[in-house]
Design a protein that fits this description.
It is a single chain. With about 325 residues, the chain is an alpha/beta fold. The chain folds into two domains: about 130 residues, 2-Layer Sandwich (Nucleotidyltransferase, domain 5); about 170 residues, ATPase, nucleotide binding domain (Nucleotidyltransferase, domain 5, 2-Layer Sandwich). It has ten helices and 13 strands. The strands form three sheets. A five-stranded mixed β-sheet has the order 3-2-1-4-8. It has a five-stranded mixed β-sheet with strand order 11-10-9-12-13, sandwiched between helices. Strand 2 and strand 3 form a beta hairpin. The longest helix has 25 residues. The radius of gyration is 19 Å and the shape is globular. The two termini are about 25 Å apart.
């Protein structure tokens, strides 16, 4: 295994989500040596989640036969509005967190330098630097997970805006008076196309008598529904789930068109668990809808592509952030 005589430097990336914590250990060349995963259990409160992040991080380091002292820094992507300068989470609706010192508390637990950033920004950074080799000049990353995260790279730099919260594409209001979002508003992109929103739509329809293969796969309550279950249903030609996936793809396509009209990036990258599971079904609809809804001529030559990093974009981006900050 890696020589721990101080020659090699290692970085840990942490993806903190509403449902799971994923950690990965990386070399300075951004090769992943090992990972660990744990459920978030946000309902247990802030301190409990910090302890779980620390445990998950130690597990990943241990998995690689390394010690915490071999790690130079930790980069963490947190959902919601984050202040990277203070290391505080300003507001994370999916965790019910408000003004909490994530960086400080995690540093206390693990004794390493910790750097935090919004999860959408972190995923975008990972895709941009590792997958796209920093080639696009202007890139937007959109990640469809429990919620929807996004990030903007403008002129090759992560753009965070006046209050450090730029890129909250998940909270663009796409349907005025639409379904309620965890952020408190109605009709947000996330409340229409995030995984949580899709599952709620399916559960409501099933309660109203809609038939779907998913009840055979997961039981009548449809508990523990994940993107993989949707893929199984689609592969088995479940007409209802096919329709839900198509509707979701149209919402994503409309959001991409809005982003093209606003930012005009050369590249739009789509990632996250949902795209990972249903790329073949969703991408053609997303691209077609985006091109139909963007202002005539504005989408010409713009690449709309799926990320190959899949669910690892967050940990890769976390490691990239840690490497940048400890340079």
């Amino acid at each position: 295994m890696a020589d721990s005589g101080g020659k090699q430097e290692f970085y840990v990336g942490v993806d903190l989500g509403g449902t799971k914590i994923l950690t990965g250990v990386f070399t300075s060349k951004m090769e992943c040596l090992g990972k660990a995963k744990m459920s978030t259990k946000a309902q247990r409160g802030f301190s409990a989640v910090i302890e779980r992040i620390a445990r998950c991080l130690r597990d990943a380091v241990d998995e690689c036969d390394l010690d915490l002292k071999n790690v130079r820094g930790v980069g963490i992507g947190a959902p919601g509005a984050v202040d990277p300068d203070t290391g505080n989470v300003i507001f994370a609706p999916n965790l019910s967190w408000k003004d909490l010192p994530l960086q400080k508390e995690l540093e206390k637990q693990i004794g390493l330098p910790v750097f935090i950033e919004n999860d959408g920004n972190i995923c975008t950074l990972g895709v941009y630097e590792v997958e796209m080799k920093s080639k696009p000049k202007h890139m937007v990353g959109i990640f469809i997970g429990t919620g929807i995260g996004a990030g903007l790279i403008l002129n090759g730099q992560l753009y965070s805006g006046f209050n450090k919260t730029a890129g909250e594409i998940g909270h663009m209001i796409i349907e005025v008076g639409g379904p309620k979002c965890a952020c408190g508003n109605k009709g947000c992109f996330e409340a229409l196309a995030g995984r949580q929103a899709i599952f709620r739509r399916i559960q409501t329809a099933v309660k109203d008598g809609q038939k779907t293969i998913l009840t055979d796969i997961l039981g009548e309550e449809l508990s523990d529904m994940r993107s993989g279950a949707l893929r199984k249903a689609v592969r088995r030609k479940d007409k209802f789930i096919e329709r839900i996936v198509e509707e979701t793809s149209v919402y994503i396509g409309v959001a991409v068109a809005n982003v093209i009209n606003l930012v005009n990036p050369d590249t739009v990258v789509l990632g996250g668990g949902l795209i990972d599971a249903l790329e073949d079904e969703m991408m053609p609809v997303i691209i077609k809808t985006a091109k139909e809804n963007a202002l005539a001529g504005t989408a010409k030559g713009i690449e709309i592509v799926p990320s190959k990093l899949g669910d690892d974009a967050g940990i890769v981006g976390g490691a990239v952030l840690a490497r940048r900050k400890t340079k």
